[in-house]
């Protein structure tokens, strides 16, 4: 069994993520657990395949490019707010509600023309399927090859086949329209994926790559963003001061949704602080390819490196009062003092999460929309327990009362 090393030193983290990142690949067990679900999408690809996909997808996730998706985010957020208004201050499971919202946002941004007659069944399939991602299966622990069925294949196999069939049909139809030069193509993620070319070779993505990246976007995008929003609401329920600050900021924000994020710095500070205390990814693992050194520690080939944002973000040598919710750390000039490798909710270096701008835009717009209308209140006496699967989520949900503000 190879040695494992937990790394909390910012200089060592920089070395692994940036300076010598080529020497630290995916840890084999993590790859086996994740690749059965995510296949050869950007998150799990390596080597030339990863470099090629990164070149093709990079232009989509710039701050300028993602502004086109602010409108569907706003539409989904307004739909949620309308539903909560109708609940008339009843208790809702914020964890479940926000997760459904982020799935809806991704559906609107990837498949803007809808999923057809099987839409509701497919949504249910996605929820079931993504619940299985990250489950450690006996076959993975034993290192059995991918063609050996996993338990998840039996649990959601039929539903997943329906999802794949429907998505393949949508892809085929959209590709035909692109080939015909249709002028009314929707400006969504699917069109971009099918129209994207490698700037070096001129090649398009293969059908399996397109499907794998759709699954990757949904799997990686919905739960991580949902977690940032739900933990922010929980923390705000404990902070009347920041609750009122965000409400006032939302009331005075830009009416133009594509530019609104820039007028919400306090909302962004709350999200940044929530991601410090409850980073969506609790730990990242890498495996050393060749011998190396981290400080005075010799690293042998095959050594597993564990970088745990949850631990790093609460390290008492790196943060003042690390367990205290204090968004002021990320507001105004204070943000410039945060150590570059002391705060890594989206990773760092070449394999840093490509969807970070999209996730932060969505989370900022949704949180601001909610705070303009409601005061979040945790159910009295309810104990919130963070639990880890792939992401950090509240065990048994997050029951809250969203008290409607008086106009």
Secondary-structure-based class equals alpha+beta
Oligomeric state of the chains present here? single chain
Q: What portion of the residues fall into strands of 2 or more residues? A: 5-15%
**Under the CATH scheme, which architecture would be assigned?**
Orthogonal Bundle
In short:
The protein has 407 residues and is α+β, with helices and mostly antiparallel strands. It has helices at 10-19, 28-38, 47-57, 70-86, 94-110, 119-132, 138-141, 151-180, 189-195, 207-237, 240-251, 265-277, 309-312, 356-373; strands spanning 4-7, 24-26, 91-93, 284-288, 292-294, 297-299, 304-307, 374-378, 386-388, 392-394, 399-404. It is built from 14 helices and eleven strands.
Describe the structure.
By secondary structure, the protein is of the alpha+beta class. It has 14 helices and eleven strands. The protein is globular, with a radius of gyration of 21 Å. It starts with a strand and ends with a strand. The relative contact order is 0.18. It has a single domain, classed as Cytochrome P450 (Cytochrome p450, Orthogonal Bundle), CATH 1.10.630.
């Amino acid at each position: 069994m190879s040695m494992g090393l937990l790394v909390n030193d910012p200089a060592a983290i920089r070395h692994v993520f940036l300076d010598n990142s080529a020497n630290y690949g995916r840890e084999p067990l993590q790859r086996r657990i994740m690749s059965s679900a995510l296949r050869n999408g950007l998150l799990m690809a390596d080597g030339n395949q990863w470099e090629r996909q990164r070149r093709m997808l990079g232009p989509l996730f710039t701050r300028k490019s993602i502004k086109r998706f602010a409108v569907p985010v706003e539409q989904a957020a307004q739909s949620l707010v309308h539903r909560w208004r109708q609940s008339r201050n009843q208790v809702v499971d914020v964890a479940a509600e926000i997760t459904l919202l982020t799935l809806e946002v991704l559906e609107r941004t990837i498949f803007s023309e809808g999923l057809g007659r099987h839409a509701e069944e497919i949504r249910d399939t996605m929820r079931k399927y993504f619940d299985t991602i990250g489950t450690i299966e006996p076959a993975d622990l034993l290192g059995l090859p991918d063609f050996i069925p996993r338990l998840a294949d039996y649990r959601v196999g039929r539903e997943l086949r329906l999802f794949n069939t429907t998505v393949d049909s949508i892809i085929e139809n959209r590709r035909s329209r692109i080939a015909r030069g249709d002028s009314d193509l929707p400006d969504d993620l699917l069109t971009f994926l099918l129209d994207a070319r490698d700037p070096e070779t001129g090649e398009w993505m293969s059908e399996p790559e397109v499907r794998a990246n759709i699954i990757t976007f949904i799997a990686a995008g919905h739960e991580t963003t949902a977690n940032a929003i739900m933990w922010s609401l929980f923390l705000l329920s404990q902070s009347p001061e920041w609750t009122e600050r965000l409400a006032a900021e939302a009331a005075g924000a830009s009416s133009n949704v594509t530019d609104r994020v820039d007028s919400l710095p306090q909302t962004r500070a709350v999200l940044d602080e929530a991601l410090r205390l409850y980073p969506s990814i609790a730990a990242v693992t890498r495996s050393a390819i060749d011998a190396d050194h981290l400080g005075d520690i010799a690293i042998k080939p095959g050594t597993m490196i564990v970088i745990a944002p949850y631990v790093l973000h609460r390290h008492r040598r790196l943060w003042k009062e690390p367990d205290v919710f204090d968004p002021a750390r990320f507001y105004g000039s204070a943000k410039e003092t945060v150590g570059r490798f002391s705060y890594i909710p989206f990773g760092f270096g070449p394999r840093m999460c490509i969807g970070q701008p999209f996730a932060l835009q969505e989370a900022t717009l949704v949180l601001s929309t909610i705070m303009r209308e409601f005061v979040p209140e945790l159910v009295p006496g309810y104990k919130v327990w963070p639990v880890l699967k792939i992401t950090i989520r509240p065990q048994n949900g997050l029951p809250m009362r969203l008290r409607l503000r008086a106009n």
